[in-house]
Design a protein that fits this description.
The chain is an alpha/beta fold. It contains 10 helices and 14 strands. The N and C termini lie far apart (40 Å).
Length: 316
Protein backbone atom coordinates (compact mmCIF):
# COMPACT_ATOMS: atom_id res chain seq x y z
CA UNK A 1 0.00 0.00 0.00
CA UNK A 2 1.59 3.26 -1.16
CA UNK A 3 1.37 5.94 1.53
CA UNK A 4 1.63 9.69 1.31
CA UNK A 5 2.81 11.43 4.46
CA UNK A 6 1.31 14.79 5.38
CA UNK A 7 3.68 16.57 7.75
CA UNK A 8 7.45 16.49 8.22
CA UNK A 9 7.93 16.37 11.99
CA UNK A 10 9.64 13.65 14.02
CA UNK A 11 6.48 11.51 14.13
CA UNK A 12 6.54 11.36 10.33
CA UNK A 13 10.11 10.08 10.57
CA UNK A 14 8.92 7.40 13.01
CA UNK A 15 6.27 6.42 10.46
CA UNK A 16 8.90 5.78 7.80
CA UNK A 17 10.96 3.69 10.21
CA UNK A 18 7.90 1.76 11.40
CA UNK A 19 6.85 1.00 7.82
CA UNK A 20 10.10 -0.93 7.36
CA UNK A 21 8.82 -3.47 9.91
CA UNK A 22 5.56 -4.24 8.09
CA UNK A 23 7.02 -6.78 5.69
CA UNK A 24 6.37 -4.55 2.70
CA UNK A 25 2.70 -4.01 3.53
CA UNK A 26 3.26 -0.26 3.92
CA UNK A 27 5.39 1.66 1.41
CA UNK A 28 6.03 5.36 2.16
CA UNK A 29 6.12 6.96 -1.28
CA UNK A 30 5.57 10.70 -0.98
CA UNK A 31 5.52 13.58 1.50
CA UNK A 32 3.52 16.81 1.58
CA UNK A 33 4.68 20.07 3.15
CA UNK A 34 3.45 23.61 2.60
CA UNK A 35 7.17 24.46 2.40
CA UNK A 36 8.39 22.59 -0.70
CA UNK A 37 12.05 22.80 0.37
CA UNK A 38 11.21 21.22 3.72
CA UNK A 39 9.33 18.47 1.91
CA UNK A 40 12.26 17.89 -0.42
CA UNK A 41 14.67 17.67 2.52
CA UNK A 42 12.42 15.12 4.26
CA UNK A 43 12.07 13.06 1.08
CA UNK A 44 15.82 12.96 0.50
CA UNK A 45 16.51 12.11 4.13
CA UNK A 46 14.09 9.17 4.02
CA UNK A 47 14.60 8.06 0.40
CA UNK A 48 11.06 8.94 -0.71
CA UNK A 49 10.72 9.41 -4.49
CA UNK A 50 8.04 12.12 -4.38
CA UNK A 51 7.42 15.38 -2.53
CA UNK A 52 4.68 17.95 -2.96
CA UNK A 53 3.35 21.26 -1.72
CA UNK A 54 -0.03 20.56 -3.37
CA UNK A 55 -2.42 18.45 -1.29
CA UNK A 56 -4.47 17.12 -4.21
CA UNK A 57 -1.31 16.05 -6.02
CA UNK A 58 -0.02 13.87 -3.20
CA UNK A 59 -3.45 12.35 -2.62
CA UNK A 60 -3.68 11.37 -6.28
CA UNK A 61 -0.22 9.76 -6.16
CA UNK A 62 -0.91 7.24 -3.38
CA UNK A 63 -3.35 4.64 -2.02
CA UNK A 64 -3.57 6.05 1.50
CA UNK A 65 -2.42 9.06 3.50
CA UNK A 66 -0.90 9.31 6.95
CA UNK A 67 -1.81 12.68 8.47
CA UNK A 68 0.65 14.05 11.04
CA UNK A 69 -0.06 17.75 10.64
CA UNK A 70 -1.43 20.05 13.39
CA UNK A 71 -4.73 18.80 14.80
CA UNK A 72 -6.78 21.74 13.53
CA UNK A 73 -6.18 20.70 9.90
CA UNK A 74 -6.64 16.94 10.34
CA UNK A 75 -10.31 17.01 9.39
CA UNK A 76 -10.13 19.02 6.14
CA UNK A 77 -7.05 17.10 4.98
CA UNK A 78 -8.65 13.75 5.79
CA UNK A 79 -11.90 14.69 4.06
CA UNK A 80 -9.95 15.78 0.97
CA UNK A 81 -8.31 12.33 0.83
CA UNK A 82 -11.56 10.48 1.50
CA UNK A 83 -13.36 12.39 -1.25
CA UNK A 84 -10.73 11.10 -3.69
CA UNK A 85 -11.20 7.52 -2.51
CA UNK A 86 -8.10 7.27 -0.33
CA UNK A 87 -7.80 5.52 3.01
CA UNK A 88 -6.69 7.73 5.93
CA UNK A 89 -4.59 7.05 9.01
CA UNK A 90 -4.79 10.15 11.20
CA UNK A 91 -2.36 10.84 14.02
CA UNK A 92 -3.96 11.16 17.45
CA UNK A 93 -6.03 12.96 18.29
CA UNK A 94 -8.06 12.45 15.11
CA UNK A 95 -9.87 15.82 15.13
CA UNK A 96 -10.54 18.80 17.39
CA UNK A 97 -14.03 17.62 18.41
CA UNK A 98 -16.26 14.60 18.68
CA UNK A 99 -18.52 16.10 15.99
CA UNK A 100 -15.58 16.32 13.61
CA UNK A 101 -14.52 12.78 14.45
CA UNK A 102 -17.99 11.42 13.75
CA UNK A 103 -18.10 13.37 10.47
CA UNK A 104 -14.76 11.90 9.39
CA UNK A 105 -15.84 8.31 10.07
CA UNK A 106 -19.19 8.92 8.37
CA UNK A 107 -17.46 10.30 5.27
CA UNK A 108 -15.13 7.29 5.13
CA UNK A 109 -18.10 4.94 5.44
CA UNK A 110 -19.94 6.69 2.60
CA UNK A 111 -16.83 6.55 0.39
CA UNK A 112 -16.09 2.90 1.21
CA UNK A 113 -12.61 3.63 2.58
CA UNK A 114 -10.94 3.00 5.93
CA UNK A 115 -10.26 5.70 8.51
CA UNK A 116 -8.31 5.02 11.70
CA UNK A 117 -6.74 7.09 14.46
CA UNK A 118 -3.05 6.43 15.05
CA UNK A 119 -2.72 5.89 18.81
CA UNK A 120 0.26 3.59 18.75
CA UNK A 121 0.21 2.07 22.25
CA UNK A 122 -3.38 0.87 21.73
CA UNK A 123 -2.23 -1.52 19.00
CA UNK A 124 1.01 -2.80 20.55
CA UNK A 125 1.39 -6.31 22.03
CA UNK A 126 1.88 -4.84 25.51
CA UNK A 127 -1.68 -3.52 25.42
CA UNK A 128 -2.99 -7.05 24.84
CA UNK A 129 -0.71 -8.42 27.58
CA UNK A 130 -2.50 -6.16 30.06
CA UNK A 131 -5.93 -6.91 28.58
CA UNK A 132 -5.34 -10.66 28.86
CA UNK A 133 -4.02 -10.40 32.43
CA UNK A 134 -6.99 -8.50 33.87
CA UNK A 135 -8.75 -11.76 34.77
CA UNK A 136 -5.99 -12.54 37.28
CA UNK A 137 -6.92 -9.49 39.36
CA UNK A 138 -10.33 -10.69 40.47
CA UNK A 139 -12.89 -7.93 40.90
CA UNK A 140 -11.34 -4.73 39.55
CA UNK A 141 -11.50 -1.80 41.98
CA UNK A 142 -8.99 0.88 41.06
CA UNK A 143 -6.56 1.98 38.35
CA UNK A 144 -4.06 4.81 38.21
CA UNK A 145 -3.05 5.43 34.60
CA UNK A 146 -0.48 8.17 34.13
CA UNK A 147 1.56 9.70 31.35
CA UNK A 148 3.51 12.61 32.78
CA UNK A 149 6.07 14.09 30.41
CA UNK A 150 8.23 17.20 30.47
CA UNK A 151 8.05 18.25 26.85
CA UNK A 152 11.35 18.73 25.04
CA UNK A 153 9.84 22.01 23.78
CA UNK A 154 8.64 23.34 27.13
CA UNK A 155 11.83 25.24 27.97
CA UNK A 156 11.60 27.06 24.65
CA UNK A 157 7.98 27.93 25.39
CA UNK A 158 8.98 29.27 28.80
CA UNK A 159 11.62 31.40 27.09
CA UNK A 160 8.90 33.07 25.02
CA UNK A 161 9.08 31.15 21.76
CA UNK A 162 5.71 30.48 20.07
CA UNK A 163 5.57 26.75 19.34
CA UNK A 164 2.92 24.54 17.77
CA UNK A 165 3.22 22.08 20.67
CA UNK A 166 1.88 24.69 23.11
CA UNK A 167 -0.45 26.60 20.80
CA UNK A 168 -4.14 26.05 21.70
CA UNK A 169 -5.21 27.69 18.43
CA UNK A 170 -3.99 24.58 16.58
CA UNK A 171 -6.34 22.29 18.48
CA UNK A 172 -3.59 21.17 20.84
CA UNK A 173 -3.99 20.21 24.49
CA UNK A 174 -2.15 17.94 26.89
CA UNK A 175 -5.15 15.62 27.18
CA UNK A 176 -5.33 15.17 23.40
CA UNK A 177 -1.58 14.86 22.94
CA UNK A 178 -0.52 12.94 26.06
CA UNK A 179 -3.61 11.96 28.05
CA UNK A 180 -5.00 10.01 25.10
CA UNK A 181 -2.32 7.36 25.74
CA UNK A 182 -4.05 6.67 29.08
CA UNK A 183 -7.67 7.38 28.23
CA UNK A 184 -8.02 5.16 25.17
CA UNK A 185 -6.46 2.06 26.79
CA UNK A 186 -8.77 2.60 29.78
CA UNK A 187 -11.81 2.61 27.48
CA UNK A 188 -10.63 -0.57 25.76
CA UNK A 189 -9.79 -2.41 29.00
CA UNK A 190 -12.72 -1.31 31.15
CA UNK A 191 -15.39 -0.02 28.77
CA UNK A 192 -17.17 3.32 28.85
CA UNK A 193 -17.53 4.89 32.32
CA UNK A 194 -20.85 5.81 33.90
CA UNK A 195 -19.61 9.35 34.56
CA UNK A 196 -16.36 11.30 34.59
CA UNK A 197 -15.00 14.47 36.13
CA UNK A 198 -11.65 16.21 36.23
CA UNK A 199 -9.56 19.34 36.29
CA UNK A 200 -6.71 20.92 34.35
CA UNK A 201 -3.82 23.34 34.67
CA UNK A 202 -3.56 25.90 31.87
CA UNK A 203 -0.59 28.02 30.88
CA UNK A 204 -0.67 31.79 30.45
CA UNK A 205 -1.72 31.44 26.79
CA UNK A 206 -4.66 29.19 27.68
CA UNK A 207 -2.96 25.94 26.68
CA UNK A 208 -4.15 22.96 28.75
CA UNK A 209 -0.82 21.58 29.99
CA UNK A 210 -1.63 19.11 32.79
CA UNK A 211 -4.74 17.45 34.14
CA UNK A 212 -6.58 14.50 35.57
CA UNK A 213 -9.80 12.75 34.67
CA UNK A 214 -11.56 10.39 37.07
CA UNK A 215 -13.63 7.72 35.36
CA UNK A 216 -16.46 6.31 37.50
CA UNK A 217 -17.45 2.71 36.76
CA UNK A 218 -19.62 2.26 39.84
CA UNK A 219 -17.66 -0.61 41.39
CA UNK A 220 -14.34 0.73 40.10
CA UNK A 221 -12.57 4.08 39.85
CA UNK A 222 -9.93 4.93 37.22
CA UNK A 223 -7.71 7.99 37.56
CA UNK A 224 -6.17 9.24 34.31
CA UNK A 225 -3.30 11.69 34.90
CA UNK A 226 -1.24 13.39 32.18
CA UNK A 227 1.16 16.28 31.62
CA UNK A 228 3.43 18.09 29.19
CA UNK A 229 5.15 20.16 31.92
CA UNK A 230 6.26 17.67 34.61
CA UNK A 231 7.90 14.25 34.46
CA UNK A 232 6.42 11.23 36.20
CA UNK A 233 8.37 8.84 38.42
CA UNK A 234 5.82 6.11 39.22
CA UNK A 235 4.29 3.31 37.12
CA UNK A 236 0.66 2.99 36.16
CA UNK A 237 -1.26 0.43 38.22
CA UNK A 238 -4.44 -1.61 37.85
CA UNK A 239 -5.66 -3.11 41.12
CA UNK A 240 -8.18 -5.82 41.84
CA UNK A 241 -9.11 -7.81 44.91
CA UNK A 242 -6.56 -10.53 44.05
CA UNK A 243 -3.60 -8.33 43.16
CA UNK A 244 -2.25 -5.67 40.83
CA UNK A 245 -0.60 -5.04 37.49
CA UNK A 246 2.08 -2.37 37.06
CA UNK A 247 3.05 -0.79 33.74
CA UNK A 248 6.25 1.25 33.72
CA UNK A 249 5.37 3.62 30.86
CA UNK A 250 1.85 3.55 29.48
CA UNK A 251 2.74 5.39 26.28
CA UNK A 252 5.68 3.10 25.55
CA UNK A 253 5.53 0.04 27.87
CA UNK A 254 8.78 -1.83 28.46
CA UNK A 255 7.98 -3.64 31.74
CA UNK A 256 4.64 -5.11 32.87
CA UNK A 257 4.45 -7.00 36.16
CA UNK A 258 1.79 -9.05 37.95
CA UNK A 259 1.80 -8.65 41.74
CA UNK A 260 -0.58 -11.11 43.41
CA UNK A 261 -1.91 -10.08 46.80
CA UNK A 262 -0.37 -13.25 48.27
CA UNK A 263 2.67 -14.40 46.33
CA UNK A 264 5.71 -13.23 44.40
CA UNK A 265 5.78 -10.72 41.58
CA UNK A 266 5.92 -12.07 38.03
CA UNK A 267 7.18 -10.27 34.91
CA UNK A 268 4.59 -10.58 32.13
CA UNK A 269 6.39 -8.51 29.51
CA UNK A 270 9.86 -7.00 29.35
CA UNK A 271 11.21 -5.06 26.37
CA UNK A 272 13.99 -2.73 27.55
CA UNK A 273 14.78 -1.70 23.96
CA UNK A 274 11.23 -0.60 23.15
CA UNK A 275 11.15 2.42 20.83
CA UNK A 276 8.25 4.48 19.47
CA UNK A 277 8.80 3.42 15.86
CA UNK A 278 8.91 -0.25 16.91
CA UNK A 279 5.61 0.20 18.73
CA UNK A 280 4.17 2.14 15.82
CA UNK A 281 4.33 -0.58 13.18
CA UNK A 282 1.58 -2.55 14.93
CA UNK A 283 -0.93 0.22 14.25
CA UNK A 284 0.11 0.15 10.60
CA UNK A 285 -0.58 -3.58 10.44
CA UNK A 286 -4.00 -3.11 12.05
CA UNK A 287 -4.76 -0.38 9.53
CA UNK A 288 -3.73 -2.60 6.59
CA UNK A 289 -5.86 -5.44 7.99
CA UNK A 290 -8.93 -3.21 7.90
CA UNK A 291 -8.21 -2.15 4.33
CA UNK A 292 -7.84 -5.80 3.33
CA UNK A 293 -11.11 -6.63 5.09
CA UNK A 294 -12.81 -3.71 3.37
CA UNK A 295 -14.27 -2.20 6.54
CA UNK A 296 -13.48 -0.16 9.63
CA UNK A 297 -13.02 -2.16 12.84
CA UNK A 298 -15.70 -0.82 15.23
CA UNK A 299 -13.40 -1.51 18.20
CA UNK A 300 -10.98 1.24 17.18
CA UNK A 301 -13.63 3.58 15.80
CA UNK A 302 -15.77 3.52 18.95
CA UNK A 303 -12.78 4.10 21.26
CA UNK A 304 -11.70 7.09 19.18
CA UNK A 305 -15.17 8.64 19.27
CA UNK A 306 -15.79 8.04 22.98
CA UNK A 307 -12.36 9.33 23.97
CA UNK A 308 -12.84 12.52 21.96
CA UNK A 309 -16.26 13.00 23.55
CA UNK A 310 -14.77 12.70 27.05
CA UNK A 311 -11.94 15.06 26.13
CA UNK A 312 -14.38 17.64 24.78
CA UNK A 313 -16.48 17.52 27.96
CA UNK A 314 -13.34 17.67 30.11
CA UNK A 315 -11.96 20.75 28.34
CA UNK A 316 -15.16 22.81 28.58
Amino acid sequence: MKFGIIGTNFVSSWFVAAAENTGGAVLPTAVFSRDLKRGEDFARRHNLPLYYDNLDAIIDAVDAVYIASPTNVHLPQALAAIERGRHVLVEKTMTESVEGTRDLFAAADMAGVVAMEATRNLHAPAHEVVRNALGRLGTLRYAHLENLQYSSRYDRHRAGEVLNAFNPALGNSAVADIGVYCLEPALDWFGSPLTHRGTSVRLENGFEALGSIQLDYGAMVVDVVYSKIVSGVTPSTIIGEKGALTIDNLGQPSLIEWLPRDGEAQVLSCDPDAAPMANMHFELLDFVSQVQAGQVDPRWRDITIRARQIMDEHLR
